[in-house]
Amino acid sequence: MSKTKSPTTKDTSPESETISTTDDMDLIATSKSQPPSNTPIEQTRWNGWGNVNINKKVSPHGAKLIKSHIGKTKKLKSVSLQQVLKTVPKSRLPVAVIEMAIVSTDSEVRLRHARGQSFPDWIAMHSGDFEVFPDGVAFPESTSDVEQLLTLAQEHDFIVIPFGGGTSVAGHINPQQGTRPVLTIAMSQMDQLLDLDTDSQIATFGAGTQGPTVEAQLDEHGYRLGHYPQSWELSTLGGWIAARSSGQQSLGYGRIEQMFAGGTLVTPQGILNIVDIPASSAGPDLREMMMGSEGRAGIFTEVKMRVQPQPEQELFKVAFLPNWEAGKEVLRQAVQSNIKLSMLRLSNAIETDAHLHLGTSPSQFLAISTYLKARGLDADKVMLTYGVSGDKAQNKLALTQFNKQLKQYGSVTGKITDIMGSVWAHGRFKFPYLRGTLWERGIMVDTFETATNWRNIDEQMQQMQTAVQNALADEGEAVMAFTHISHVYKQGASLYTTYFFRAAKDHAATLRRWQKIKRAACLSVANGKATISHQHGVGHDHAPYLAAEKGQLGIQVTRDMLKSLDPEQRMNPGVLLEE
Amino acid sequence: MSKTKSPTTKDTSPESETISTTDDMDLIATSKSQPPSNTPIEQTRWNGWGNVNINKKVSPHGAKLIKSHIGKTKKLKSVSLQQVLKTVPKSRLPVAVIEMAIVSTDSEVRLRHARGQSFPDWIAMHSGDFEVFPDGVAFPESTSDVEQLLTLAQEHDFIVIPFGGGTSVAGHINPQQGTRPVLTIAMSQMDQLLDLDTDSQIATFGAGTQGPTVEAQLDEHGYRLGHYPQSWELSTLGGWIAARSSGQQSLGYGRIEQMFAGGTLVTPQGILNIVDIPASSAGPDLREMMMGSEGRAGIFTEVKMRVQPQPEQELFKVAFLPNWEAGKEVLRQAVQSNIKLSMLRLSNAIETDAHLHLGTSPSQFLAISTYLKARGLDADKVMLTYGVSGDKAQNKLALTQFNKQLKQYGSVTGKITDIMGSVWAHGRFKFPYLRGTLWERGIMVDTFETATNWRNIDEQMQQMQTAVQNALADEGEAVMAFTHISHVYKQGASLYTTYFFRAAKDHAATLRRWQKIKRAACLSVANGKATISHQHGVGHDHAPYLAAEKGQLGIQVTRDMLKSLDPEQRMNPGVLLEE
């Protein structure tokens, strides 16, 4: 276990370093000479997103556009790793746990597993005010390791927090103040494809396997999972399942709910083995009872996933439409008429303008704007990104049918939009890196998201944007907000709002600004006919708003169900359901 | 409420009577002059399946084939309705309930809500040995009626059984012996389309709406649900949801799980309102926690269903393949390559032969056999039924791609098989009527079903057939069994086994024969990697085998979840989970 005991000992091959130094790296690429494995945590930023070797630049006129909305910005000073390490207190775990080979109480290891990627997490990582650290981090290598840890948790009365990729944006993995010690269980060592049944198209994985490792290991057999959340580079199968993730191509490949066939959940009451049966009428679905349990019931150790052969063809394209209404109608009609696309994404006019600024040089921006203007698209124009993935004949029919719908609504497509589609596909996992780039300029950015029925989409988007834009009015601060639809269903769609605001005089004041915006954002969702989260989960941050969606009785039955498996409430308390 | 208080007062229009007297009636057809509604229960057989005006003949050489397997048969004597009515005891319900306008304690009403359609139910209905009758039947007209009934149940400590179409084949709605009175709540009066949101394609229905009423009411607006279980003529939305039903075209339209968007569940703890959101990452899915609850948590009163426009085109076809292996490979490859069919069904060789006998005259049988033999298909041949439903261009591509696969595996298709496809589609809801026809000849028939991964399909089918065929070996009795795949998934498929055996010297001895076969059948499933039921639910009959699938911990968490909503265990006790 020495390879994980310390964050500096894991092997990092020269190949992967070489790959990751270029901005054009393909995150899926991996050396064929050894089995692919997860990104070692010491190769990730301790106080930001992603691989230390990857950066994403922001175009100067993109930054200028944001500042034209929110005003001049000033960078806040960040604390150093060494300074924070000094604040890590002595572990409170019992000696029996501390001395285990799979457990580390190293300060840096504990620090690197203390926070996720929510805005408050970033404030903590830059201010140094972490508040609480886990008392230790375990790196189990098997289901029986996890069983042993949960038995010890019961014997010695400590809290357990499961940790996948540490990418939560809702406070899923943050230890809370309390008298009981906290052991974080990091699943990073369980990162291998264990079995592939090609007849049934079921792949069994260690639940700690990260996105690129999942796909690289399947690719060696010609298979694909097809789950691409924005956090894909670091997030894990277990995390996706526990927090009900959705990927960019959910229209084609389904959400994680459609992919997760069964597996092993280690609970304080023992092992819950969810059998992988294609479909069943035998009572409530254990899969669906445990998906979204966010560590409150137990820890997924091995998971069986529905996979499929690599697609014969995969394409991503862009089209522009005259306005939001036209774009929305195209999306709705496409999904409701069963056109076999793998993704549909629609930016509203503000987001379209911002994307064109952020993703281009001034001369490219001018060229695209002029091109679109000549074809009658102006300030109201919206950008639609779509894809196909699969059999060529099916793709061809899908594109033919979709192009017909696009044309009916006055779309503009051409060589330039095709290039934009490829550029989007190539850079799609690098957007999270932009947050750090903007942070360095004093531009604070965060997102929130929901889903609602088509009937409510416009009203809901309006409510969300207005709520956020006005959230700092009492301080005279402007907030810039824009929205896209990223996942579509016959019944409705998801809405994903991005917002920018200025850092305040210090980290604490900046956090207070965020809290105001976050509250306004959550209320705009909770007061609508919408979910508090379509793809980010509940965590700590959304728990206060969950009852608006589930009702008090829904909360009660969920709580009783989880308590059945964790009667002493030692599994990730405070997450999902408020105490 | 007079229209339901007595079973004889409900209006029956001359139109519907005329329609139902012909054997060729289209069950979907309905008068346009008044809103379509459910089949009144007094128009159904009190001791068998379906509408009293519909019969299905068995071909003499079909019956001969069955007898060539199981031997000569003798009809058992059946009890009359009048004889059974004399055995209905006095109601034990409190006066406060008996006097309610929506409650009937009429003996025939109670008798008609005492049993479903399982084999033991048929024995009860023909022997007269009902054992237990509900103490009364309520016919609520609203959610608040149901709330009131559950409040009274708590005040007066009686048991509640929800009743949809009374079509359970697993003992879901049978009252059990006990000291507490039993009120059956029949949902037949809540049978109307209440709202249709065409933007979001969501239809809100009373949960007691039967299949033909659902489709007729949607059809008036050009919409369709597309859920066609074998019991469709009488079964209801609430029943489908509560027992996780699957319809014949699940490949195209999805299972009930994909259709049910949300709704109102009245529980002893109050109303659980499940909001209709297209998708959510906000914790465990309440929909999936309550689907399959089989009345143990509460009663669905209003349900929101995902619907779609009527398909532009719908076709059903038949193909023959040389053997099971070829047929199975065609199915697996079609579903795994995303060919957009709406159904795929494959009869094994024994079932193919039996279907050809049962569905034809001797001269038709000879013509088909000769035709197939001339094309190289003989005793091992298997019949594959498939369909498309939707957009013409998508259907065309699907059929082109599927035909290519069929040909690769040596299929035979032609005008004659196309006719067989149409005949199947036309008569598909009449198969359940055959049971009564065979019963009259002393031929006992029942079915059971499961689902498993493709890897296990052959082994599982073998186990199931062998178990059933040998179940009466100790009596020297032969059992005829055959199997088809009726629902396919990328991961696996369902297996549906039909078996025939001889009535014994009396009803009690016949029931003992069935019990032996049922136990062997259930063990063959429970000992495999398969579900105890893919589409019939658990009820009383499968409850003893549920732990094999869910594990003891899975049973515990399900029990605790349901108890949260029904702490006094008055909702349909004994169903789903053994006491």
Automatic annotation (TrEMBL), chains A, B:
This protein's UniProt keywords: FAD, Flavoprotein
Keyword Magnesium assigned: no
Biased composition (Low complexity): 1-18
Transferase keyword on record: no
Comp. bias regions, Polar residues: 30-42
Span of domain FAD-binding PCMH-type: 130-310
Stretches for region Disordered: 1-42
PANTHER family: ALKYLDIHYDROXYACETONEPHOSPHATE SYNTHASE, PEROXISOMAL (PTHR46568)
Sequence similarity: Belongs to the FAD-binding oxidoreductase/transferase type 4 family.
Stated name of the protein: FAD-binding oxidoreductase
